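Hi support team,

I've been running sequence recovery on a batch of backbones for a student project. Most finish fine, but this one hangs at about 90% for roughly twenty minutes before it completes. I'm not sure whether the input is malformed or the queue is just slow. I've pasted the structure tokens below so you can try to reproduce it. Let me know if you need the job ID as well.

Thanks,
M.K.
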């Protein structure tokens, strides 16, 4: 994995073009078409019915997204930011048009919230446990007629992995409980979609603030706000990852370059926010590793403050559950790693593409992540760039089926103004569809998708280094050689 090198404030980033009179019209057309597609995807058939045609619609939506981002940078800043926000809100409202399209995770969220409302620890028993039968609601546990409408056998449930305990960390469980209590017992999918909408609106606002703190062009907000991925995953599918993204963006806003007079407070706040994000979904924890070499955090005291705050928060969050259920607090995580073929090593698609033996694929992939992060430390990259590299390297190495895992990377790439990382966000969708639709070529599709994303990131990184080398002033011996040649 060849990392991009962000030396200098705008290195590796194409300079925004001058304003064009046609750009606002192009932005408007692309945004309107995207809003229509968002509503159509949400209102239309779910993935098992829509199949590959749904992926084609998402592909068209992604193309419109790229057009809208390009047009935003040719629109005057003040107007561009206003229309980006308006379009971002409209896209998210359109995603409320129908039930979840490509995921059933929110049904598990609803169940976990229901269990907690009954005063039961969510890590204690799986949904299928007989002792929890009295908590079953018809919309999650349909009758025979309802199961028939879902094309399932009698006794079915909407909850995935009903025989397995929950996998979600404590802060995610607190979120599920809060949404359930606010929406009321029996609240259906719309409550979870609205909860996702709330996190998305907050994330867009916080991204605008973070971009100002980092001195970035505010039009970079288009990279996240207009992307189909957060609209589909956080709002339509209601994924809790949106909460993790919000907390991670808050951490980047806190750690933005500035006076060091409040450095200890800033280090602790950054650690707490990253720890909180990891307590929603585990993978944002690598952001702390990415920050180690950034700005001041390479110093031992700063590192101890940030890491210590994260660890302390995790201990406080897990302690009550450990006291009640012991080792069961791990939930389905061990089973998930086996189900996703990480234990066997066949899920590491990029390592596999280079014919790495399955038994060594995990170690090789982990080494690649360590090398990438070490490069950022050595080069003393800015925090946002370092976190983007850490997250991007992790996703490329692990090549997950779930495309919503890359939402955090897309948000960080927005703050860092590194659009190439968006390729990793897009890479997950062909693979996800191939797996869900049981394609015999799923692994091959995943390898091609993630290799293309890796190539895109590497190409942009190499191009950026080439431009910097061309712009670098000649040394004395180089100038002498050049003059002699002339």
């Amino acid at each position: 994995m060849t990392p991009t090198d962000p030396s200098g404030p705008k290195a590796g980033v194409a300079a925004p073009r001058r304003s064009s009179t046609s750009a606002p019209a192009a932005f408007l057309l692309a945004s309107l078409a995207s809003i229509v597609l968002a509503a159509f995807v949400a209102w239309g058939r779910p993935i098992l019915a829509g199949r590959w045609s749904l992926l084609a619609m998402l592909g068209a939506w992604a193309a419109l997204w790229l057009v809208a981002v390009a047009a935003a940078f040719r629109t005057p800043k003040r107007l561009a930011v206003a229309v980006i926000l308006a379009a971002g809100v409209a896209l998210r409202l359109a995603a409320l048009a129908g039930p979840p399209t490509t995921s059933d995770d929110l049904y598990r969220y609803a169940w976990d919230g229901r269990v907690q409302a009954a005063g039961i620890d969510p890590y204690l028993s799986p949904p299928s446990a007989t002792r929890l039968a009295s908590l079953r609601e018809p919309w999650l546990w349909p009758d025979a007629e309802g199961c028939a409408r879902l094309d399932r056998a009698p006794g079915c449930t909407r909850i995935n992995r009903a025989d397995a305990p929950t996998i979600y960390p404590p802060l995610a469980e607190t979120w599920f409980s809060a949404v359930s209590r606010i929406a009321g017992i029996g609240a259906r999918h719309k409550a979870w979609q609205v909860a996702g909408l709330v996190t998305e609106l907050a994330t867009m606002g916080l991204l605008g603030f973070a971009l100002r703190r980092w001195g970035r062009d505010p039009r970079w907000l288009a990279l996240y706000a207009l992307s189909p991925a957060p609209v589909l995953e956080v709002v339509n599918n209601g994924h809790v990852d949106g909460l993790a993204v919000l907390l991670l963006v808050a951490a980047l806003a806190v750690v933005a370059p500035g006076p060091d007079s409040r450095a200890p407070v800033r280090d602790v706040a950054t650690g707490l926010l990253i720890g909180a994000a990891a307590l929603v979904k585990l993978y944002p924890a690598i952001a702390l590793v990415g920050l180690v070499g950034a700005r001041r955090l390479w110093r031992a005291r700063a590192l101890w403050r940030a890491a210590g705050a994260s660890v302390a928060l995790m201990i406080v969050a897990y302690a009550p559950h450990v006291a009640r259920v012991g080792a069961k607090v791990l939930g389905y995580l061990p089973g998930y790693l086996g189900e996703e073929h990480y234990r066997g090593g066949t899920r590491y698609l990029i390592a596999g593409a280079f014919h790495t033996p399955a038994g060594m694929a995990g170690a090789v992939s982990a080494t690649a992540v360590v090398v990438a992060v070490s490069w950022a430390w050595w080069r003393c990259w800015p925090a946002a760039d370092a976190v983007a590299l850490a997250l991007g390297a992790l996703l490329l190495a692990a090549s997950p089926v779930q495309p919503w895992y890359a939402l955090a990377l897309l948000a960080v790439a927005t703050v860092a103004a590194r659009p190439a990382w968006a390729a990793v966000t897009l890479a997950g969708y062909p693979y996800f569809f191939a797996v869900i639709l049981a394609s015999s070529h799923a692994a091959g599709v995943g390898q091609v998708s993630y290799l293309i994303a890796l190539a895109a990131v590497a190409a942009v990184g190499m191009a950026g280094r080439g431009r910097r080398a061309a712009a670098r002033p000649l040394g004395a011996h180089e100038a002498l050689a050049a003059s002699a040649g002339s």
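--
Follow-up from support: It reproduced on our side and the slowdown came from queue contention, not your input. Residues 7-15, 469-486 have pLDDT under 50 and may be disordered. No action needed from you.
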